[in-house]
Amino acid sequence: MSKPANSVLHTPLSRENATSLYEQIATRLLEEMEAGLYEPTGRLPSESGIGERFGVSRVTVRLALDKLVSEGAVVRKQGKGSYVAGRQVRHGLDTLRSFHESLKLQGLKATMRLLEKKVVTLPDDVRQRFAPAAKGLFVQRLHLVDGEPVALGDSYLPHKLHTFSWNEVERQPAYSLLADRMGEAPARADIAILAQRADQRLADTLKISEGDALLVMRRTSYFTSGACADHTHFYVRPERYEFVMSSTFRAS
Amino acid sequence: MSKPANSVLHTPLSRENATSLYEQIATRLLEEMEAGLYEPTGRLPSESGIGERFGVSRVTVRLALDKLVSEGAVVRKQGKGSYVAGRQVRHGLDTLRSFHESLKLQGLKATMRLLEKKVVTLPDDVRQRFAPAAKGLFVQRLHLVDGEPVALGDSYLPHKLHTFSWNEVERQPAYSLLADRMGEAPARADIAILAQRADQRLADTLKISEGDALLVMRRTSYFTSGACADHTHFYVRPERYEFVMSSTFRAS
Q1: Among A154, A196, A210, which would you mutate to test the B interface (most chain B Cβ atoms within 10 Å of its Cβ)?
Q2: B101 domain-assigned
Q3: The whole model's pTM is what?
Q4: SUPFAM superfamilies from the xrefs (chains A, B) (predicted)?
């Protein structure tokens, strides 16, 4: 029997085995999922990708995936492909928290990588928020889970924070930096959630393709005085990320 | 002078005019924006599309758009193109409202078109929410602004609502139908906001391209008793749509 083209397997499938091919493939994928091979996004390769890798037809791949779905190990998402079940990141919005804190609260191994930190003249739309200040600290941080990028945060912060070291900004959540330097944490935030397609810069940074869907959170935080504490865009890889909240009726 | 290829202009640009080409183009685009030509998405054609239409270089198109941006008539959105300014739909989540009501609250001319209405055996993941009921009403409605689709809502509702007529379901917001038939409106909802790429069905229905980014709201509403009132996915065209809310710190 010839080895399938493009095989990346350590052990080839057995075509003489009593176990059917699709069951062997299901077992192999399950082992890889358990070994964390598809973390943190949880996305499995496409059906055609799996078929090519194992040298089998798409029908066989579907049978394997159907088996994993029926066992609850894999979920299919409309228009998005197949995913390792049960690792959805649910970022709660009912309580104000730093993005980094929200990831850690999920029990995820969350880290940050500081990409940029510089004093800037605030762009017009940001300047009005921080008025009368004309300058601020711009910080760009990559949020990672298990070492893989899940979101990019572009933040404008009060100028006073510019004396923090590179290491401090890389490690401390924004609200912790603000509390340390300003003497109080933000009291509230206006939040907007939107979607856009990734441009080349975002695609490269987040390791996705240009044009992929991104979930975006725009957050402007305020101190109790009403002074602006931060203005941040978070560009989030959406595969298994969702923002959640409870909403109640109230007199308006 | 020859007419530019692919021109759809009623009046061609004047290349002998004292007014520069880019200013003429800016004026033309502004007139069209004011006439509502780019509503409801507000998206202007691409730079290359505008260039081709007017038979001018991309540099000239950029000058025209820069002029409109500096005048506040157009906004550029990273990775999304140029948009008519100031018609962002801001869907507030702080208070629970029907999707349709939220659009009307923005002062938009919002309508619904009923695409499907049928009694169904509830899918497994929905059935547990409506337990012990095994059947429910499935309703698919297109939400339009100025006659153009902005969102598709796929709703599961209590079986008791199946006696409403096609017309009633097409016209009444979900929470109004629920209040009429169940004797009370939902008291709270769990909401998740996510992003995904449009598959062929969603792309066709929403008049976008397969693979385009979609903003998705998944909502499960409950009556005060805790019984499930609706389970709905809203697939939203994201160009100018954002979900907004305020978040405050609280002891957790």
Answers
A1: A196
A2: yes
A3: 0.73
A4: Chorismate lyase-like, Winged helix' DNA-binding domain
In a domain, B249, yes or no: no
Tell me whether residues A243 and B194 touch, CB distance under 8 A. Answer: yes
Return the pLDDT at B7.
34
Q: Which residues of A touch B154 (CB under 8 A)?
A: none
CB distance B247–A191 less than 8 Å? Answer: yes
Say which of B186, B218, B242 has its CB closest to residue A194. Answer: B242
Across B93-227, the runs of DSSP E, i.e. the strands, are 110-121, 135-145, 148-158, 188-197, 213-222
The number of domains in chain A is 2
pLDDT single digits (tens) B30-55: 888 877 788 767 889 999 999 999 99
Contact A202 B79 (CB under 8 A): yes
- Surface of B (203-242) touching A: CB under 8 A: 211-215, 218, 236, 238, 241-242
Domain with residue B116: its CATH number is 3.40.1410.10
Of A79, A188, A241, the CB nearest to B248: A188
* Nearest CA-CA partner of A123 in A134, A114, A108, A112: A134
Lowest mean pLDDT, pick from A43-57, A109-123, B9-23: B9-23
Does B72 lie in the same domain as B112? Answer: no
> Which one of B69, B84, B99 terminates a domain?
B84
**B residues 69..98 contacting A (CB < 8 A):** 77-80, 90, 93-96
Same domain, B139 and B46: no
**Residues of the domain holding B15:** 5-84
Contacts 24+ apart (CB under 8 A), B33-38: B33/B73, B33/B74, B33/B84, B36/B146, B38/B84
With respect to residue A251, please indicate whether it lies within any of the assigned structural domains. no
- Based on the domain organization, do B124 and B158 belong to the same domain? yes
Judge if A140 and A189 occupy the same domain.
yes
Q: Do residues B152 and B117 both lie within one domain? A: yes
Q: Are residues A30 and A109 in the same domain?
A: no
Under 8 Å between Cβ of A11 and A3: no
Query: Among all residues of chain B, which has the CA nearest to that of A78?
Result: B199
Residue A249: inside a domain: no
Q: How confident is the model at residue A52 (pLDDT cuts 50, 70, 90)?
A: very high
HSE-CB for B89 with a 13 A CA cutoff: 28
Query: Both B120 and B12 in a single domain?
Result: no
Instruction: Determine which of B125, B199, B245 to mutate to test the interface with A (most A C-beta atoms within 10 Å).
Output: B245
DSSP labels, A103-153: HHHTT--EEEEEEEEEEEEPPHHHHHHHTT--EEEEEEEEEEETTEEEEEE
Which two tokens mark B76? 């550029």
Which ipTM did the prediction report? 0.70
B248 to chain A, any CB pair closer than 8 A? The answer is yes
> B174 to chain A, minimum CA–CA distance in Å?
14
Looking at the structure, tell me whether residues A78 and A98 fall in a common domain.
no
Q: Show which of A66, A84, A102 is a domain's final residue.
A: A84
Mean pLDDT score across all residues of chain A:
87
